[in-house]
């Protein structure tokens, strides 16, 4: 296990993890998500922004789980995997769009 430092808003957190690259990638995506929300909500606290981002992620996860549950029981693993990949691609595009919004906002100042 390695130690990594993750900066979230104005605070740096030290975490222990097995997959440093993955955790750093996820932290960056989460921070981008929070920054995108922050751009829309001017005076929200960091806790409120993190809560909203967490709720949005839970909503997206629930949708993915519902999509998977809607598949007939006889669906092959490869078909289920394809649906999951498509959904993850949509989520990635959504997160990338948020990151683009954040980047544009901070590059114009």
What is the overall silhouette? globular
Count the beta strands.
2
- Report the portion of residues in β strands: 5-15%
Count the domains: 1
* Class from helix and strand fractions: alpha+beta
Q: List unreliable stretches of 5+ residues.
A: none
Q: Report how far apart the termini are.
A: 40 Å
Give helix and strand order, one letter per element, not per position: EEHHH
Major sheet description: 2 strands, antiparallel
Total of DSSP H or I helical runs spanning 4+ residues: 3
Average pLDDT score: 85
Fraction in helix: over 70%
Query: Reading side by side through the largest sheet, how are the strands ordered?
Result: 1-2
**How large is the radius of gyration?**
17 Å
Write out key terms for the chains shown.
109 residues, alpha+beta, two-stranded antiparallel ribbon, 2 strands, globular
Describe the protein in words.
This protein has 109 residues and is of the alpha+beta class. It has one domain. Helices cover 71% and strands 13% of the residues. It is built from 3 helices and 2 strands; from the N terminus they run ββααα. It has helices at 20-40, 46-70, 77-107, and strands at residues 2-8, 11-17. A two-stranded antiparallel sheet has the order 1-2. A hairpin with a 2-residue loop joins strand 1 and strand 2. Helix 2 packs antiparallel against helix 3. The longest helix is centred in the C-terminal third of the chain and has 31 residues, at 77-107. The termini are far apart.
């Amino acid at each position: 296990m390695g130690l990594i430092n993750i900066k979230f808003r104005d605070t740096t957190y030290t975490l222990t993890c097995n997959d440093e690259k993955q955790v750093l990638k996820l932290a960056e995506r989460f921070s981008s998500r929070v920054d995108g929300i922050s751009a829309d909500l001017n005076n929200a606290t960091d806790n409120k922004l993190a809560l909203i981002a967490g709720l949005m992620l839970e909503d997206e996860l629930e949708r993915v789980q519902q999509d998977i549950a809607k598949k007939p029981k006889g669906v092959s693993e490869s078909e289920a995997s394809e649906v999951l990949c498509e959904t993850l691609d949509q989520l990635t595009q959504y997160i990338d769009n948020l990151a683009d919004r954040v980047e544009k906002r901070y590059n114009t100042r």
